[in-house]
């Protein structure tokens, strides 16, 4: 049966026959009882309890409650929100509310004037707002409400201890409040929702206890091993490497013994936070036991693992206060790599553990790889890094200069300053080795500053001695442009040496344009405003879009030497060098051909209209004095 507005109505029917004197039925008395409320209770309860028994996920159970309620009372749009530990509302279900609305209120705080639900959760009692358009409780949320919804009645869902854990709300398309059926529906649903939410909380708690370390909140051994195995499978499918870092704190026992266990616990929490801050989304951090932590880094090779280990050790070594004492934490780190050191997590962990013991024996506060070869490489890199640091600090690098020659008259266009490093034991180290190392270990800024100072000093010296060098070109690295002070410092430097902006060329690479650092573009423009010329180095090898050419204040293009090397073969290389020249010509940029080693190459480039060339054919990069001699010889020869 249905009521006057079409809602389902359940009735119990009792028929009593009326008998005549002979005992024959003549009439019957029918008794119809409205049992809708009891029946609703039964149907709703059975369905929800059935879902709970079948372990249906919380969100699906809440969706079921809303849909059942809406089926019984179609004039209602139901919504269920959870209140999280931070007092914020989290959307669980609202099948007939727009997704955009559910998303907008997800994360909203509860409070004294936070719509119907936030206020109901805050007050711990039902809140009826029969006119959303005017009620002050909705002042901050009215703009979010979907068109057509005019009233909202929300009731808090409480757990068995009386704490508010969620809200159950009815939205209406008229200015109204609940009727008797709605009151009944909510009454039944609140118990069911509380049951489902409490069960979910209990499950989350059990999961937390089973899979997370209670002290630090990090994944424990079981979870870490399971997640690491999954990461290994993904790396296997992608053909990528993975690194396992086993970290053990040095002298932790002494800290525990001398400062007490609460201090030890505080230190472990601090260490966990620091490890997480370094690793972030790059990998997993877990605590095995005591002072043993593990970091798993998917898509990570030996070199990257070295960098992370260095960062972890440096971060841990920053002093922190524990129990009123300033402590510096040293740790020993063992590293194993998938697939070379093991195919599964058990093996990798065991080998990282063995490597960690080697690190401890070899001096604390250090790391070791499981494999000897990797160890060797990492140690070499560390040694090279520390020598380079010394060289930069003590300014024992030098600059060589390579001339760039104008092809129409053989005069000098500029000289390119190139850094050189002679290692006390290893001899000359190539810039292609030490420049990336300086970039990785944060030395490049200092190195570039020195290059700029030395190049300007040398140019001023040449000028004073009447040696005509029109300009000096220096190479800067992408991170140099993160320094907002670079233009100002350069301005001061140029003035100090009596030079102007146009005496300096700064070579940048196409790869730099992929660096999205906010100051890069501004720094480039500020340099151009000083009159410094910007030259796009290795042009044609990197960034595929050319659109940057007219957005950036570039005055020169340097054709990459690989094109010049291929010129003799004709065909594509010839077409490419021609295309680069045409691009330069149409944008009115000076184009310099790099790596010219043969007369034939020079002739071809000259024919194509290249105005300037650089390469071994003219001269290798030379110390300043040797360059002066080279210039003298050319003058004599002509
Ligand atoms: N950020 C900085 N980068 C620098 C600095 N000094 C050098 N570098 C960069 O290192 C890379 C290697 O440089 P280098 O070994 O000095 O090689 C340069 C020339 O020697 C070489 N070259 C020049 N002519 C020829 C030639 O005819 N044949 C041939 N095979 N090589 C030649 O090219 C290098 C100059 O290249 P480029 O800078 O692209 O003009 C190199 O990328 C340097 O940029 C520094 O102080 N800071």
UniProtKB/TrEMBL annotation:
Keywords: c-di-GMP
Origin superkingdom: Bacteria
Ranges that cross the membrane: none
Biological process according to GO: cellular response to nitric oxide
PROSITE patterns named in the record: EAL, GGDEF, PAC
SUPFAM superfamilies xrefs: EAL domain-like (SSF141868), GAF domain-like (SSF55781), Nucleotide cyclase (SSF55073)
SMART domains, alphabetized: EAL, GAF, GGDEF
GO CC annotation terms, alphabetical: plasma membrane
Location of this chain's protein in the cell: Cell inner membrane
All copies of domain EAL, residue ranges: 381-635
InterPro entries xref list: Biofilm_reg_signaling, Diguanyl_cyclase/Pdiesterase, EAL_dom, EAL_sf, GAF, GAF-like_dom_sf, GGDEF_dom, Nucleotide_cyclase
Cofactor(s) named in the record: Mg(2+)
Swiss-Prot/TrEMBL catalytic activity: 3',3'-c-di-GMP + H2O = 5'-phosphoguanylyl(3'->5')guanosine + H(+)
Enzyme class: hydrolase
EC number, as in UniProt: 3.1.4.52
GO MF annotation terms: cyclic-guanylate-specific phosphodiesterase activity
CDD domains reported in the protein's UniProt record: EAL, GGDEF
Domain (PAC) ranges: 1-47
The GGDEF domain, residue ranges: 240-372
Protein name as catalogued: cyclic-guanylate-specific phosphodiesterase
Native source species: Pseudomonas knackmussii (strain DSM 6978 / CCUG 54928 / LMG 23759 / B13)
Upper lineage: Bacteria, Pseudomonadati, Pseudomonadota, Gammaproteobacteria, Pseudomonadales
